[in-house]
Amino acid sequence: MPQGELQDLGPIQNRRGTRVRFHPDAEIFGPRAKFDPARVMRMARSKAYLFGGVEIRWSCDPSLVDGNDDVPDKAVFHFPGGLKDYLAATIGKDFTVTREIFAGKTEKTGGHGAVEWAVSWYGGDPNVHSYCNTVPTPEGGAHEAGLRQALMRGLKNYAEMVGNKRGAQITTDDVMISAVGMLSVFIREPEFVGQTKDRLATVEAQRIVENALRDPFDLYLSANPMESEKLLDWVVERSEERLRRRKEREVNRKSAVKKLRLPGKLADCSQKAASGAELFLVEGDSAGGSAKQARNRTNQAILPLRGKILNVASAGRDKFTANQLLADLIQALGCGTRTKYREEDLRYERIIIMTDADVDGAHIASLLITFFYKEMPELIRQGHLFLAVPPLYKISQGGKTAYARDDAHRAELMENFFTGRGKVELSRFKGLGEMLPAQLKETTMDPKKRMLLRVDIDAVDFEGTKTAVDDLMGTKADARFRFIQENAAFADNLDI
């Protein structure tokens, strides 16, 4: 209740405005009612960025915020750029797909509502905050639907303009699944769902927002083609991931009542436990036949691969899901791919790529490593992926026999091992299929005598690794051409 009439105190320190103080009525709010400083601060700060340029000075009794590092005693909330400034401060130094935030605003004209927005894309969870007349709408509503439609249609149109056919499959969920942003609308007489006003129900708000964003988003995409290509590829990847998950669910439903069926070409090991089990990925049926005879059937499994596998870094998800060879490999491993990867479901402790010691073998190994890097990076990080090191030469002299991995190793053996009298016989293996099972076991598969190279991902220079894989194995031919131009002078010992 007012304690008295308003008093005119005249000019006081040249200040203007009205100070209002109040205490919660104990009869209504209870004798112990008190405010949550963090909630009041968030409300005050939101007004500062929803009204770009407004300065709000915050102060709070230190005793109320003691021990709460998120609430300062004093602060100034001031965002001259409105939502864009606030979003940039929120993102900070986190990874974003594009360098520039897509932001803008329209004024209220001709009875239509005013709209302000700021959107970016990053690798985290979706986080879009929306407001109507500064009232938070955590459950979204018509204005968020307009935002989603405008972004989806803009990217689809851009994909059609640049000839990216995969863009036709984009949905609003693909666009928003990694979006972070702010949306604020001011409209007359808004309608909300329920008393809490968590969701905007005004149908007109969708049209207002969609019309406001359409042209600015088209301009944003066309102004920087390289950044727009990155964004389009990012969203298309989300789309292909969604389609892959849907297909996996369909397969899981169909096979829910069926027994596990392993690929027909897989010669599995007899033990069921993953610990100590090994899967050899072998180049060709001929080498696969030798490997099956050379293996330890208890813990060594063989999966022959015919020809060069699909380059998953440049192929679309439709080609990937239709590739039988990769489907067999994924089925044999049993651990799923990407977000569906489950370490506990991996059927083998070691996955060993065993290809010929020549250019073709190195190419197949590169394609397989790319597959694991793109589809099962955690399998590599956990130390499960290896490269076998088969010999390139067999050297004999009298009763002595040795195997050389490459030319340098051969020269070392010739100098230090074969020093006696007698003719030295040198033979070169054209491939694993030419080796006798006993030779393959002795040189490449017997844990007591073989050499394995473990494949790892550089944890320090992760971005450098990603760039190298994208440049050398991806869809950009100009990146590979540039690499060849820059490094051709350093290449030697070419096996052509």
**Strand order within the widest sheet?**
3-4-7-5-6
Number of domains: 5
Shape: elongated
Q: Which structural class fits the helix and strand makeup?
A: alpha/beta
Q: Tell me the strand percentage band.
A: 15-25%
Question: How would you state the average pLDDT, rounded?
Answer: 86
**If classified by CATH, what would the architecture of the largest domain be?**
3-Layer(aba) Sandwich
Count of separate DSSP helical elements: 17
Helical percent range?
Answer: 40-55%
* The CATH topology of the largest domain: Rossmann fold
Terminus-to-terminus distance? 94 Å
Radius of gyration: 33 Å
What kind of sheet is the major sheet? 5 strands, mixed
Query: Unreliable segments (pLDDT under 50, ≥5 consecutive)?
Result: none
Number of strands: 17
CATH class of the largest domain: Alpha Beta
